[in-house]
Amino acid sequence: MADQTIYLDGKFVSPQDARISVFDHAVLYGDGVFEGIRVYDGNVFRLEQHLERLWDSAHAIMLDVPGTRQEMVEAVCETCRRNGMTNGYIRLVVTRGVGDLGLSPNLCSKPTVFIIAAGVRLYPQECYDNGLPLITAPTRRIQPDAFSPRIKSLNYLNNIVAKINAINGNVLEALLLNQNGFVVEATGDNVFLVKKGELVTPPTWLGPLKGITRDAVIDIARDEGIPVREEPFTLYEVYTADEAFLTGTAAEVIAVTSVDGRTIGDGKPGAVTRRLLAEFRRIVTEQGVKL
Ligand code: PXG
Hints:
Blueprint: E1 6-8, E2 11-13, H1 25-29, E3 32-40, E4 43-45, H2 47-60, H3 69-82, E5 88-95, E6 112-118, H4 125-130, E7 132-136, H5 157-168, E8 173-177, E9 183-186, E10 190-195, E11 198-201, H6 212-223, E12 228-230, H7 235-239, E13 243-248, E14 252-259, E15 262-263, H8 271-283, E16 288-290
Parallel strand pairs: 7-8, 7-14, 11-12
Antiparallel strand pairs: 1-2, 1-6, 3-4, 3-5, 4-16, 5-6, 8-9, 10-11, 10-13, 13-14, 14-15
């Protein structure tokens, strides 16, 4: 990669100059939205879907993303080009902007937009080879009637606390349940089960993020003739699944081989999971926006 350059409010600046105010409501309140996007061989994977989700998240919190979606496509691609990045990860953030010490966003005159192009932090290869052990987080996912967890907001403490519990339990990820005991998602990934040749994943109304990888895997499964059901399930269905896997922009498709000490299936990444990962890795250079 060339020397790193960061997009900040329409300009390209060095990492040292890429600063935001302590009065930005992103810092004071986590008030803002973001996306994490992958670039594969010069193809920004499903960029339009990421921007649709960004605009939806912003709309739900009454934040106007500056400019048009086409201008944002251009800003994202230009950031990759200027960084010489054809494979990597993009973080796109829109904050409420600079305000005062009150909650009210009315005094924030304009949103702050920044885009960082960086390397990807993948799970170690051995996790793809052997699958991940997970635990269930002792804390619950935020309920949709408190604040929709479908909004990809800058307030990730619900997820971060669950991640801390995972790390304290010597695993890398945790499953989050809702108050009724239904599995919602992991801290930064969606969750799927395979049972008797069918895929099952929690429906979006239950609160998981409408993951771009989740959508891509559902499309692949349907193309491959694998039935997909979006249905609530509990830990019992997880423990007794034939296979389980997580999906996310960073993780792609990764097998889960145990949860709370229960072995899933035969304890190895399953055939359906491996097939979906192979097909996912094939389409990532085909669907999206070329640099
Ligand atoms: N659920 C949650 C809560 C997420 O934050 C996903 C699911 C997967 O969605 P995509 O669109 O990526 O398939 C996410 C997104 C990280 C990291 O560092 C991961 C996400 C966001 C921010 C950071 O692992 N995952």
